[in-house]
Amino acid sequence: MIKLLPGELINIDINKCVSPENLTILATENDKYRLYETVNLDSFPGWNDFKGHNKLFKNETLIIIGKKGRPISFSKKEKWNLYDVYFVMYANKVYECFAYCIKKISDEQP
Description:
This protein is mainly β and about 110 residues long.
């Protein structure tokens, strides 16, 4: 898993909307994805874990502003870091997203 730091630019991988354990971690609608203000770390995976303001995206660039943590139902061992939730910002609004869905934009240009 990649290391994500505040200030880094990212994209979201819509193809990673379901985790390897078959848990839905990103809401999708056709070729777009929806991010929410909050992922409930106390109840995930459960029902109605995504709350607050939300927005439908398609190929936008976002910025990492910090790490929130990991759902309490997952071990703190490194193999579960794909379930770490990060704060991301777009147009001055903050959303939360699982690390598994995040693609870091490389500093190197082709």
